[in-house]
Write a structure and sequence with these properties.
With 399 residues, this protein is of the alpha+beta class. The chain has helices at 3-16, 86-150, 158-163, 168-239, 243-266, 281-292, 310-320, 329-335, and strands at residues 337-339, 349-352, 358-364, 367-370, 379-382, 388-393. It has 8 helices and 6 strands.
Length: 399
């Protein structure tokens, strides 16, 4: 990064501290049919190598896509930013952040699949190793029988001894020995044949599992590269702006967030002040733990302990509380029980965007604990910082 770009990015980071993301209010009732970018991950900042991106805005529908908030002055930018208005710059940043977040969610989903497939591959290889060991034992036993037969101790000449036995009891004893040896031979050969067939099946399954793992690993790398590319696009835009321009974008964004929060509270869609239901024991623990993470940086693909992305924070918080939930925002929306916003209680997961690409943990009183976007840090912010899709309850039914 050039000296000018570095100075601008640093300036942007200073100006950006503590800004809330604007939003377009909540839906009156959650809709279960949300679509999403694909939606298990690195325990640390897997994509941190993309570099920090200054906090300059995020997805929000409160600010019109083609203009500024009514009544707000819209200063023009300079030639470095292509002559866009402040509202136009905010819109462009919103699109870039949404795109990066969708790519991150897709990456997270593939990482989760790769994690499961790696475990499956190990399981298949362990089964194959045991099968091959059993097959080796069967081959040793079969070889021993072959040697006994060659040496005349296989028991088949016992038929002759049986015919020449001096008394009936001796004949019966000889018959018993001959039958036992015959059964051992049949069982040994049966185990050998079965072991060979099982070994072949397991070898095939192990190869298929490894092939799937390698395909997922390749896909994950491409998706990681896509996330890095999108984050660099944000860096490039921010580097083209002056500190004054970024401050104007932040101001416009903050006013949109405040307006969206006021509108949501006035709509009655949320519990009234102090009206949130009491959290479950697990929900209270998830909130308490999440509050301890406030101030830690956002990193795509991370779920702690040093950094988080949005769904990484919510999944890690509930895991800490003893409840395993899906890794990605989309799967949290699709697989957890939906609850109306009016019935929110601390610990519920708030889902954002029509494609369910972002989540945050409800803390009560209209606030959420959120890992918002690249360049920002985990913070307690108003629930209407983004377009609310609905809410889900990881421990539904638990009081």
């Amino acid at each position: 990064m050039s000296g000018r770009v570095l100075r601008l990015v640093c300036a942007a980071a200073v100006v950006a501290a503590g800004v809330v993301v604007p939003a377009g209010g909540a839906r009156s009732a959650p809709e279960p049919g949300a679509t999403a970018s694909a939606g298990p991950v690195p325990e640390t900042g897997a994509l941190a190598s993309a570099g920090p991106v200054p906090d300059a805005g995020a997805a929000a529908s409160a600010v019109p896509e083609t203009g500024a908030v009514p009544g707000e002055p819209v200063p023009e930018t300079d030639a470095a930013s292509g002559g866009k208005t402040v509202a136009g710059l905010l819109t462009e940043m919103q699109k870039l952040y949404r795109s990066a977040e969708q790519a991150t969610e897709t990456y997270n989903a593939t990482a989760e699949q790769l994690k499961k497939q790696t475990a499956e591959t190990k399981k298949r290889n362990d089964e194959l190793a045991r099968a091959r060991l059993a097959l080796s034992d069967s081959r040793i036993a079969a070889g021993r029988l072959a040697r006994q037969q060659y040496q005349g101790r296989s028991g088949f000449d016992g038929y002759v001894r049986l015919l020449l036995a001096p008394d009936p009891q001796t004949a019966l004893d000889q018959k018993h020995v001959i039958g036992r040896l015959a059964r051992e031979r049949v069982e040994t050969l049966g185990r050998l044949t079965s072991g060979e067939q099982q070994s072949d099946r397991l070898a095939k399954a192990a190869r298929q599992a490894l092939d799937k793992q390698q395909v997922l690993a390749g896909r994950q790398k491409k998706q990681r590269d896509a996330v890095v590319t999108k984050l660099k696009a944000v860096e490039k835009l921010l580097a083209s702006l002056s500190a004054a321009q970024i401050a104007e974008v932040q101001k416009l964004e903050a006013s949109g967030a405040a307006a969206a929060q006021s509108q949501l509270l006035a709509s009655g869609a949320l519990p009234g002040p102090g009206g949130s239901a009491a959290p479950s024991r697990a929900g209270a623990e998830a909130v308490r733990w999440s509050l301890d993470q406030v101030g830690k940086p956002y990193a795509s693909g991370a779920r702690g302990p040093k950094a988080f992305d949005a769904s990484g924070l919510t999944s890690a918080a509930w895991e800490r509380a003893g409840v395993r939930i899906p890794r990605t925002a989309h799967d949290q929306w699709e697989k957890l029980r939906k609850v109306p916003l009016r019935s929110l209680r601390p610990g519920d997961v708030i889902v954002y965007g029509p494609d369910a690409s972002h989540v945050a943990l409800y803390a009560g009183d209209g606030k959420v604990i959120d890992a918002p976007r690249p360049g920002a840090r985990v913070a307690v912010v108003p629930i209407a910082g983004r377009e609310v899709l609905g809410a889900v309850r990881p421990d539904a039914g638990v009081r």
